């Protein structure tokens, strides 16, 4: 997510999430009480229900034992986490935050197993009384700017969907060229004022994008070539490494739960796998971020180029090289 804001420091109390029944009629839930007329909990519930319809083996992840509920000292701020896995899904996880002042955050993602080169479903939403900041995408596992094969395989038939919602949810302003490498031609990056109509459009977009991702998953064929599986694994690890280091949501968590707990949530939950899927470091993948003393440069953009307008046309062709 490109921009987020938040409030006071809180302490934590982690409670385990009970294992869910695997019977066919079970309604999967993250058990979050709706605190306002608009809540991201219905987004999470929709995704869990639809995933369960698409795969018969969705079960809670082992992460659920350690990451479930974080609560503030004054009891006014809640962080809720849930996580699942399935045969084609390495990790489906969500983090939601609701405050008594009306601020809400949703960070929802689905990561495929390395045997599948599926895109990564990504929904990062921030809502306050006046503003909503949204990133919704099927993040490409492999290059879609300079290469055509992966883009044709997964996005060719989704371009009309992206065009539809890019008109309803216009481009949100400057996006760094470094971040752009992790987005697809159908990415929704937008900002809008809070209203029932806009929230309805966002929910519709979330549902349509998630159904599109599930359809890709349903038709995905397991890779048996070990060299391609290794490429998929490294690509996902590179993505996780970037997000764990540069995701602005960390600053929200740091304000809410302190630096130590925030690092645990980011590296062990939100981007679980950054320590396990590969051995390369952030600077191995992104050497341009190395400072003179060998540390990582904190600023998000080294190149200094950003995109104020949507850098793909209505045919899904990248036109970012023609403007800055």
Task: Provide a concise account of the structure shown.
The chain has 324 residues and is of the alpha+beta class. It has nine helices and ten strands.
Task: Please characterize this protein's 3D structure.
This protein is an alpha+beta fold and 324 residues long. Helix content is 32%, strand content 18%. The protein contains nine helices and ten strands. The strands form two sheets. Strands 1, 2, 3, 4, 5, 6, 7 and 9 form an eight-stranded antiparallel β-sheet that branches. Strands 8-10 form a two-stranded antiparallel ribbon. Helix 1 (41-54) runs parallel beside helix 5 and helix 7 packs across helix 8 (259-270). It is globular and about 50 Å long. Residues 1-27 have low confidence and may be disordered.
Total beta strand runs: 10
- Rg, alpha carbons: 19 Å
Instruction: Note the main sheet.
Output: 8 strands, antiparallel
Q: What is the chain-wise order of helices and strands?
A: HEEEEEEEHHEHEHHHHHE
* Structural class assignment: alpha+beta
Q: Could you give the distance between the termini?
A: 20 Å
- Which range best describes the helical content: under 10%, 10-25%, 25-40%, 40-55%, 55-70% or over 70%? 25-40%
Count, helices: 9
Mass-distribution shape: globular
Provide mean pLDDT, rounded.
87
Report the sheet-strand fraction: 15-25%
Low-confidence runs of at least 5 consecutive residues: 1-27
